[in-house]
Amino acid sequence: PRTRSDLPLDIYDSNGRAVVGEGRFVNLSTLGGRMGTRKPLKKSTAIRLQVVPAGKPALDLSGKVVWTRRKVAEFEYGIQFSPDSPASSLGRR
User: What is the DSSP string of 50-87?
Assistant: First the structure.
């Protein structure tokens, strides 16, 4: 199941080094999420995300873009988390 979210995130290249953009999760689950950003990304792009949930330590997640959607002022993406990402704690409030 998906949980609504408004978690801010930083988007890094696949090596986790260069910040390539900022965005927010719109919804998420333990397997993936929908995020919005002004940064254009291509489908199948491997990315790393850093999320800071309120009152919790930062989480570094890895995944890939599985779908893209152009909005008026931004892009939306479906992100599938990698099996080794600690995403299981993101869906809990």
Answer: EE--TTS--EEEEEEEEEEEE-SSSEEEEEEEPTTS-G
Task: Give every CB contact of residue 54 below 8 A, 6+ residues apart in sequence.
Answer: none
* Under 8 Å between Cβ of 52 and 8: yes
The pLDDT profile of the chain, 93 residues, written as one tens digit per residue, is 889 988 899 999 888 787 888 999 999 999 999 999 999 999 999 999 998 778 888 889 999 999 999 998 899 999 999 987 776 555 544
Amino acid residing at 55: G
- The DSSP code for 33 is E
